[in-house]
């Protein structure tokens, strides 16, 4: 374990135990980075009242009882403990990190984690919002896997429900071949719009569509065949988007709404017989406590409509039961738009009432904020139509090629760099803001080489590689030793040691932007180091030490970007 904050916390807690009794040994030492030292601990202030002693006295007692090997501690102000790590200690930890395949990322006791993400609708459109749930969800799946959990990716595809009546009729009208080709090429949005218009304007089409729905739900073979084809061809498009994006989702992870169809009746029966659900105005509803409408009346979660049909909530309840009972999930992450917050709160509450979501299982809605256009409204094309995602990604790659990759003559190399930079830029933009905030989709910003962007971090890795290339050296050939002379060397090494704790925090909080911020700070620390410390031109043993620090920075950046699902070009 290389993280300095954790090591210091241990030291302070041990001292608390020795000074005030073991009941204080698990007190949170309240450690923060400090302006005046590496870290400060504020626990003396918080404990003083309980101990009925002056905070500075408490602080002194802690210092007296503390193991001060490799650290110096000073008491400042009302009783802050300012702690500074010894240079040799930092250097030795950095060498250990360099020798560690996991770069200091601890291995957790494995839990079973279901990540529900991406989940576009075959019946509607895949929009930039789905791009964001896909990208954020994929990172969370990668991070959990990396810290040692068993991850089940589930793509809760919108592949079932009443709109399919209308879509199947439209498919028949325009001819299967033509329809399927269009769906596979990502024309699903336009296809949906056409069907919708016909449904609104044409009575006979509307009637045909309506009567198609019970045929689908009742399993009529001809209808099911058309539905399957529809889904199959739409999935081809989704899979294409996934492969362009470089996310880890494949056909194996599809667990769409249709999968739960056969469980819905049973889910309703179980809820009704256990008294969790009641009939209200003909519909079967759960009224989870604490959810009321504006007028104060209890809000229903409708699980069977008065016409006998099931809805989105029923499917989600079936999914929760399946995930806990069959997949043995310890934790379920729903990476879904923030607008569905009420839905998930009510579904979780109902699942708790049913006993499916018990105390040992955590279900969390990882709320995803909307992606906006420059006008502050939902992101659309100028004509107001929603954007084809493949076109958007193509444009990112094309722009990256002009902005960044134009200095490479070799067309294959240029394409490769442009692809990694363009896609990496789009992904990083989704990941670097906190997942629940909205942000404005802006190509210029996401592809900029400066600032907290994907290309900036990719460039940082390429620059470190170029140091080794110029020296005709292999980064793997520098295991240390590390000595820390300049302040910027020390700051870089200290920053590197924090990697493991950040990855753990992302796993705990489901907040990938914390890893982005860390990597951005790290790249900046490297820049300061590189500006003030010559590397290749330094004398030995400093040269070897600086090369080791550079190699470690490269590995942490590449590993961190890999957890974000971002590829790095060898040169840029
Ligand atoms: N298909 C839904 C949508 O586009 C998202 C599904 C999210 N997952 C879930 N279990 N409800 O809004």
From TrEMBL:
EC number, as in UniProt: 6.1.1.19
InterPro entries, sorted: aa-tRNA-synth_I_CS, Arg-tRNA-ligase, Arg-tRNA-synth_N, Arg-tRNA-synth_N_sf, ArgRS_core, DALR_anticod-bd, Rossmann-like_a/b/a_fold, tRNAsynth_Ia_anticodon-bd
Catalytic reaction list: tRNA(Arg) + L-arginine + ATP = L-arginyl-tRNA(Arg) + AMP + diphosphate
One Pfam entry name: tRNA-synt_1d
EC class of the enzyme, as a word: ligase
Xref: PROSITE patterns: AA_TRNA_LIGASE_I (PS00178)
UniProt keyword Aminoacyl-tRNA synthetase, yes or no: yes
Subcellular localization: Cytoplasm
GO biological process terms held by the UniProt record: arginyl-tRNA aminoacylation
Any single Gene Ontology cellular-component annotation: cytoplasm
Boundaries of every Arginyl tRNA synthetase N-terminal domain copy: 6-85
Domain of life: Bacteria
Domain DALR anticodon binding: 457-572
Entry keywords, A to Z: Aminoacyl-tRNA synthetase, ATP-binding, Cytoplasm, Ligase, Nucleotide-binding, Protein biosynthesis
CDD domains, alphabetized: Anticodon_Ia_Arg, ArgRS_core
Keyword Repressor part of the UniProt annotation: no
GO terms for MF: arginine-tRNA ligase activity; ATP binding
Protein family: Belongs to the class-I aminoacyl-tRNA synthetase family.
Subunit structure: Monomer.
NCBIfam families in alphabetical order: argS (TIGR00456)
Protein name per the record: Arginine--tRNA ligase
